[in-house]
Amino acid sequence: MQLHFIDIAIIIAYLIATVAIGFWISNRASTNIKNYFLGGNEIKWTYLGLSNASGMFDISGTMWMVMLLFVYGLKSVWIPWLWPVFNQIFMMVFLSIWLRRSGVMTGAEWIKFRFGDGRGSNLSHLIVVVFAIIVVITYVAYGFIGIGKFAVVFLPWQLSADPATNEIYYGLIFTAITAVYVIKGGMFSVVFTEVLQYIIMTIASVAIGIIAMRQVSPEVLDQFIPEGWKSLFFGWHLNLDWSGIMDAANTKIAEDGWELFTIFFMMMLMKGILQSLAGPAPNYDMQRVLSTRSPKEAAKMSGLVNVVLLFPRYMLITGLTILALVYFSADLNNMGDEVDFEQILPFALKNFVPTGLMGLLIAGLLAAFMSSFAATVNVAPAYIVNDIYKRFIRPNASEKTYVRMSYVSSLAVVIIGTLFSFFLGSLNSLIDWLVAALFGGYTAANLLKWYWWRFNGYGYFWGMVGGILAAMILPYALPNFTALQAFPINLGISLIGCFLGSLLTPPDREEVLKAFYLKTRPWGFWKPILDKINEENPDIQPNRAFGRDMVNVVVGIVWQTAITAASIFMVIQYWTPFMVCLVVVAITTIFLKFNWYDKMEDYPKDLTNLDQV
Predict the structure, then answer these.
(1) By the 8 A CB rule, do 166 and 413 touch?
(2) Beta-carbon neighbour count of residue 452 at 10 Å?
(3) Is 74 contained in some domain?
(4) What is the model's pTM?
């Protein structure tokens, strides 16, 4: 793609700015490992929320959602529940508060807080560390390839005559740039560069949405979409028929197997609720929660992500989609069954984005890659240094030594992930199953750890192992099952491991369970522990907020969905549903203000002395 000098200057200025920020604040980050990994718990929740949203604003996921909106219309709003996108509502309402009350640095350190120092806890600690490091290295590898493929399409410089080599060169360049500011500045650098990246991405997203609104009228759009495309709601069947408009879209729907949309929706909802109740995986989302200044700020940070991420992101998604529907449908139809929806973004950029905005948009898309990459890279060293080096190798080393080891481990993760990427061509299917297996094994064990006192470290370990092995074996044992269809079987096997591992071994030490319950105060099956605590302190009360929390979760999901739908309706200029969505957002916001926001507590009121736990 040929770029104007102004566009090139904007891109270069952005890259210089990100590195400069990393070096500018590096002295503050290098004081100790708490500063390096958690920003010293001094960063405002608003900045962390913007940073978290930036890390989630990955371009690969965005382009996947462009394809979904193109094919499924407004019903595509529900499909990200597969992840599930509404896990941020559970985090906002109660889980971020519970997690932040621990005061730990990593997910593996939280395991020690929950299960103590016994053998079962050590096994659980080990599997969480391995889980986190493997996932990070895998994502670094994918990020390396993604950056290279993106840069080859949108940047004008040919660094090699061979396209594959060109991708490698670009991947190395942008990986190195990102690694420099992440390694040097730690969490401070990641957060403040991601705030800059979020601003750039938001400006670019809003601009694409406005361009699409000016180029595509509702009347013109109606000529290129099937009946029902603009409706959020569905019946037993999907009832979208692209025949005569784009037959390849019907093929895509059939391949996805989502025609019986109500069944798909209910399975997706069940899986999403269970995974949301389990809390965050040990990734950058968890790290942002642990980096906040207080439990209440952790909850507010998770709530902010829903607003600042969804509206601008869906303006970009919708803008690209309707531009492609109207101006690119003929080209897509000519591709036949080999239709490539990934060509939508290059087409829109080449034909509709003016000079200046082009540079800003490409910088924003680069930022989307780099923010996800940076957030991921900053996670693994926390586990390597805090949970391995500090705990088992040099527990009494100086803070400067731990920070230097953080530099080394960050660099090692980047190098290993980059080298790993060179084998992705032959190991792609294996890596897909590896990642699916790791996350498939995560749900049951991490669900029970919050809500059942008798669940111990052995149960956690065997639940994780059972779930991971099941997720690796089921695709071969049940080749016709999708991951969603196989989820109940995976969950059942993992639960068996959880229950047998817990009930065939002694409970965790009473002192550990009492300390965890006193400080975290989850609702669930904790009465035997509360009874023990009340023998010493009868003023300690159980968490009676289950009903309120569940109501807030339901209202929060409606709130989140209305925000998402409103941005789509606005860009397609479907004003009546847009106004309805705004009214729903207003009503649910007011409800959450009084029933959630005003009732948050940093710590339970009856816990007057945190030192006791």
Answers:
(1) no
(2) 17
(3) yes
(4) 0.89
